[in-house]
Design the sequence.
């Protein structure tokens, strides 16, 4: 785990342990630590929470201050997507400041333009072409992933010239905590039978345990993306570091973002 701690502000970020990431590409993922939000949007102690979502019921001024805390870790101001668990990937270069864009992924081949997604159990996926010419961020909840958000984003990256692509899987709910129903099992396995390996059947009420990291890896492998890092966290069980919607219900959101220097 590569944690970045700012002693002055108390901010704690994750810098991806990503050996295949090009030298000119930067990326981070936030934790719940280091902001001004209070419970239920605080840190594990109920204070100093770094909630970055303005749609979950937190005080809007707290969200603005939290986003401002990250200004040194973005190349310039960013506009967060309005995520809808869909499959649309948009060009981050075309997003105007302050606009509302309904999408679940963004990509760019321009320097100093951040691609960013918000999560609290769903899987953030950061993508970079190995030549450093194109990057993307994907909000991969189960609905979006089953629907094809990863494929749609990779297709757009390849249109932008990103041929050989590497991926980093950010903090998401772990394989021993993500309980799902037959609808989720069917959504993946009917489209891609090899996804069966990423489900463990449960006796209770016909439920399954799903490995969201494994589901994403299987999709990425099908797209000839084999350089994959990350996937070692569990937002549900790592209370000190992460918000979790499944665990807490009313809670904040973390961000994962990437850009070309």
Sequence:
């Amino acid at each position: 785990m590569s944690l970045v701690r700012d002693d002055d502000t108390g901010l704690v970020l994750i810098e991806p342990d990503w050996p295949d990431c090009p030298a000119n590409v930067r990326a981070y993922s936030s934790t719940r630590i280091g902001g001004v939000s209070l419970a239920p949007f605080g840190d594990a102690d109920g204070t100093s929470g770094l909630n970055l979502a303005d749609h979950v019921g937190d005080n809007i001024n707290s969200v603005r201050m939290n986003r401002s805390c990250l200004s040194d870790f973005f190349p310039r101001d960013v506009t967060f997507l309005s995520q809808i668990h869909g499959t649309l990937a948009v060009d981050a270069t075309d997003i105007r400041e302050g606009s509302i864009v309904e999408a679940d992924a963004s990509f760019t081949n321009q320097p100093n333009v951040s691609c960013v997604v918000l999560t609290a159990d769903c899987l953030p996926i950061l993508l970079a072409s190995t030549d450093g010419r194109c990057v993307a961020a994907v909000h991969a909840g189960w609905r979006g992933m089953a629907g094809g958000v990863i494929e749609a984003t990779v297709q757009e990256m390849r249109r932008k010239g990103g041929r050989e692509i590497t991926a980093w899987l950010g903090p998401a709910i772990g394989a021993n905590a993500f309980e799902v129903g037959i609808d989720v099992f069917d959504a993946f396995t009917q489209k891609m039978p090899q996804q069966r390996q990423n489900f463990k059947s449960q006796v209770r009420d016909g439920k399954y345990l799903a490995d969201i990291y494994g589901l994403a890896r299987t999709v990425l492998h099908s797209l000839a993306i084999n350089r994959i890092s990350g996937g070692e966290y569990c937002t549900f069980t790592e209370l000190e570091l992460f918000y979790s919607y499944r665990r807490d219900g009313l809670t904040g959101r973390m961000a994962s973002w990437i850009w070309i220097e």
Remarks:
- The longest strand covers residues 123-129.
